[in-house]
Amino acid sequence: MQAFLHQLLSGIADGAIYASVALALVMIFKATHQVNFAQGEMAMFSTYIALALTQAGVPYWVAFVLTLVFSFVLGLAIQRLLLRRLSRLPHASELTAVVVFIGLFIIFNGAAGSLFGYTLKEFPTPFDPGAWYGSTYLSSHEVGMILMTLIVLGIVFVFFRFTRLGLAMRAAAENPASSRLVGIRVGWMLALGWGLAAGLGAVAGMMAAHKVFLDPNMMSGVLLYGLAAALLGGIDNPWGAPIGGFIVGALVNLAGAYVVGSHLQQALALLVIVVVLVFKPSGLFGRTVVVRV
Amino acid sequence: MTPVRPTAEIAGPTGRRISGRMWWLVALLVAVVAAPFVLSSYHIFQATQIVVYAIAVLGFNLLTGFSGQISLGNGAFYAIGAYVAAVLMTHANLPYWATPPIAGAVCFGVGFLFGRSATRLEGLYLALATFGLAIALPQILKLDAIEHWTGGSQGVVLSKPASPLGGLLDDDRWLYFFCLAVAAVLFTVAWNVMRGRTGRAMIALRDHAIAAGTMGIHVPSYKARVFGVSAMYTGVAGALSALVAGFVAPDSFTFLVSIAFLIGGVVGGVASIFGALFGAAFIELVPDLTKQVSELWPSWHWLADVQWPAYGVLLIITMMVMPGGLAGLVYSVQLRLAARARGAQPPHSPRS
């Protein structure tokens, strides 16, 4: 029972990371109906920036904030300089965008490898390194991860629910044409969304890096679980995504420990996703889309 | 500019286009037959690899470009094809030339069943489900239960096919022509299918599934069959790739293979048959090219590090320059030329 609880809680801690990545994916999907396959690699690259800052002697939380600013600007710039142009080209299809995301994936992965090397690197944690108040279930870092994710989710919720800018961003995603008519600068709202998503990804990256160590391929598995989480929660539902993240985290950890062994974890997670998609394609909390023909 | 005769106008652009296409085809044929006699052995290997990739990219195009089902998992069928060929050659002692058809048949079955169960999924959801297949397959290949056949993580080593025309063609060139012959058959079949009833049904399915259903096209059955055919093409390519590499192992079939097919398909033009050739050449040659450029000046160490970022940048630039792939570019050039011959404004002016 104790081992079971340990696996469950540790899975929920991992789920915190998947939840952030899933929310980042959902934010971009809601606004543009695109899935950003480079989300994980952008987060990984930001985490390297954080590592470089802390190694240069910057205190952890200052480096944390600076990294968030860097990621935000990075996401904003990618949308403004690249994707905005792409969406205006004739003959551009959704597949063109997918290939551009793959190109970004390759660039960030390769750049991190050549700038910082391919060896595993230790990443600091702001939390106490040991067990959490003598608990056998969770380390302090894992508790910190969960708390951090909940705080970030809270901030995102407050931002979208109670600020004018958040309302404008939701409106721009929901109905760009009408939003433009009431004076919302839809293009900039999209860019802001990209910046916020990149920042969310960076938080996930910095939390994950202490646990799995930092290397250029750190986020590829996380991106996959994040996608799974987003789909499970319903890819058009921002509140479903984090819940999906926690479920996927717990499920994958438990299955890895008791059912299929660690080397089939990814396969099993994806099998579950396929089953969910076949029986409930809109996810657990997604809106069923009815198309008029 | 040559004046256009009225008869040609009546015959329509098709008459002229086909004869034009014939010349292109003849030129292409001469080039691919002559290629192995002028290339070094490494470049023959690359050319063979391009031919193999072309079959796989064509398989991707049939599924994604022509029938509108986005697949991020065709690499899984490539792996299955390769493993079927390897197991047949090592455990059933089949000759190498018998393996591609069997691999194709097996992959058709697997693809059909997968497509059958995935017909409810569309667009992004299908893409992710197939992506799951691509991720899961290398892990399944490593399973202990089937290690006797698959060799686990070690994989299987195959003997290289020997040339029956030893004096005329060495083994590498023989293999090149063997792959080329298979590719020629499969490209011809695809070309004819796409111009016939089935091809039009597939395109109707892509453009408006509900309307296609009303016209009497059985949507789920067609979708599953196209999935099977796409898997078959990819499986044949996989079997050939096993012969070319002389080796199969789970780690050569990561999801990156599926991504490569996607890149090849989109760069060549996803709803295009001959675009597959260009796409295949792109995914084989461009990463190699950036590697060679990065090694040109050995004293500049940082160049070696930018090989992959440079590939990513090239990929994005390619997409910005020709978002519809090479076929899209050719098509818009054709439209403009035709419009200019008629003396009218081009129908798709980019400034409009």
Provide a descriptive summary of the structure in words.
The complex is a heterodimer of chains A (293) and B (352). Chain A has 11 helices and no strands. Chain A is an all-alpha fold and 293 residues long. In chain A, helix 2 runs parallel beside helix 4. The longest helix of chain A has 31 residues. Chain B is an all-alpha fold and 352 residues long. Chain B is built from 15 helices and 2 strands. Chain B has a two-stranded antiparallel sheet. The interface between A and B is large, with 43 and 48 residues.
Percent range for β-strand residues of chain B:
under 5%
Q: Which stretches of chain B are low in confidence, meaning pLDDT under 50 for 5 or more residues running?
A: 1-15
Number of strands of chain A: 0
pLDDT averaged residue by residue of chain B: 85
Main β-sheet description of chain B: 2 strands, antiparallel
| Total DSSP helices of chain B | 15
The quaternary structure here is heterodimer
The number of helical runs of chain A is: 11
| First-residue to last-residue Cα separation of chain A | 53 Å
3D shape of chain B:
globular
Q: H/E order of the elements of chain B? A: HHHHHHEHHHHEHHHHH
Helical fraction of chain B equals over 70%
The largest contact between protein chains, plus residue counts on each side, is: A-B, 43 and 48 residues
- How are the strands of the biggest sheet of chain B laid out side by side? 1-2
Give a brief outline of the structure.
The complex is a heterodimer of chains A (293) and B (352). Chain A is 74% helix and 0% strand.
Please describe the topology of this protein.
The complex is a heterodimer of chains A (293) and B (352).
Chain A: H1 2-32, H2 39-55, H3 60-88, H4 94-116, H5 140-162, H6 164-174, H7 176-181, H8 186-212, H9 218-233, H10 240-258, H11 265-279
Helix pairs in contact in A: 1-5, 1-8, 1-9, 1-10, 2-3, 2-4, 2-8, 2-9, 3-8, 5-6, 5-8, 6-8, 9-10, 9-11, 10-11
Chain B: H1 6-38, H2 41-66, H3 74-91, H4 99-117, H5 123-141, H6 147-150, E1 156-157, H7 171-195, H8 197-207, H9 209-214, H10 219-245, E2 247-248, H11 255-268, H12 275-294, H13 301-305, H14 307-321, H15 325-342
Helix pairs in contact in B: 1-7, 2-7, 2-10, 2-11, 2-12, 3-4, 3-5, 3-10, 3-11, 4-10, 7-8, 11-12, 11-15, 12-14
